Amino acid sequence: MSGKSPRITVFDLAARKGAGPPIVAATAYDAFHGHLLAESGLDIALVGDSLGMVVQGQETTLPVTLEEMVYHTRMVGRGVGGEAFLLADLPFGSYQSSPEQAVASATRLVKEGGAQAVKLEGGRDFIEHVVRIVRAMIPVVGHLGLLPQRVHAMGGYRVAGRSPAEAERILDEAHALVEAGIFALVVEGIPRELAARMTREIPVPVIGIGAGPDTDGQVLVLHDLLGWTSEKDRPRFARPFSDGRGEALRALAAYARSVREKSFPSDRESFHSLNE
Ligand code: KIV
């Protein structure tokens, strides 16, 4: 018996450390966009808990449940079809309580969602959690810097690691996570100098978001990079690579106009009875 192997594995990603082109990742939340992302040749489809804000319209990522992550991961997996690495976030409240809870939640994302690996936010507080997930044969990606799940604890979304002491603390946490067994690390909202130093120092791929150009890869929220989010809702570091929002607004306005003036549908866009 043999199944279809995914095109990109943890070993392929790990091998990109310091070699080959940078890793390209973006978020996806459903099958349609997972397919688009895989067809474009991106390396990683991240089912981020940012879906709470991006597709559920929540203020933060905190309300996102494990059930919802499993559901979205399964959808994205169908779209990706093994052509991009499928990574899923452990949402707030699904891993913090204990290593046992972390293993159980990670197992659901893999077993029911089809994820190839899970990502969790935090460093030294969750070392045992990472060790235990890895021991359960589930690859783990760390996430340091600005941690959206700590929005209340941090008093908002702020660039992390600007002071030398905080930079050292984040570096120390990165080393601890590597020792615990992560195979890659996402760093969010940190100074480019710190990201560059971390990329030089730690032996696993460092994938940045709002962390400058010197990492082993980049990740962006799909809706930001396609330009669907309005400028005021888009972080400064997120470059829109198309005018998705403008295009969508123009298309919807044209559709509404055509329906109202009765130029849509045309005869060519209509069916005829057999005797007409
Ligand atoms: O949830 C998410 O989209 C993420 C990225 C910001 C890295 O974790």
Could you characterize what this model shows?
- The protein is an alpha/beta fold and 276 residues long.
- It has one domain (10-242): Phosphoenolpyruvate-binding domains (TIM Barrel).
- The protein contains eleven helices and eight strands.
- The chain has an eight-stranded parallel beta barrel, surrounded by six helices.
- Strand 3, helix 5 and strand 4 (117-121) form a beta-alpha-beta unit.
- Helix 2 packs across helix 4 (66-80).
- The longest helix has 17 residues, at 164-180.
- The mean pLDDT is 96.
- Residues 27, 48-50, 89, 186, 188, 209, 219, 221 line the site of 3-methyl-2-oxobutanoic acid (KIV).
Assign the CATH class.
Alpha Beta
Per CATH, the superfamily is Phosphoenolpyruvate-binding domains
Tell me the strand percentage band: 5-15%
Distance between the termini: 56 Å
- Overall structural class, as computed from helix and strand content, comes to alpha/beta
Q: How would the global form be characterised?
A: globular
Number of helices: 11
Radius of gyration: 21 Å
Low-confidence stretches: none
Largest sheet strand order: 1-2-3-4-5-6-7-8
Q: What is the averaged pLDDT score?
A: 96
Percentage of residues assigned to helices: 25-40%
The CATH topology, please?
TIM Barrel
Topology as H/E string?
Answer: HEHEHHEHEHEHHEHEEHH
Assign the CATH architecture: Alpha-Beta Barrel
Which molecules are bound in this entry? Answer: 3-methyl-2-oxobutanoic acid
Question: How many independent structural domains?
Answer: 1
What is the oligomeric state here?
Answer: single chain
Number of strand segments: 8
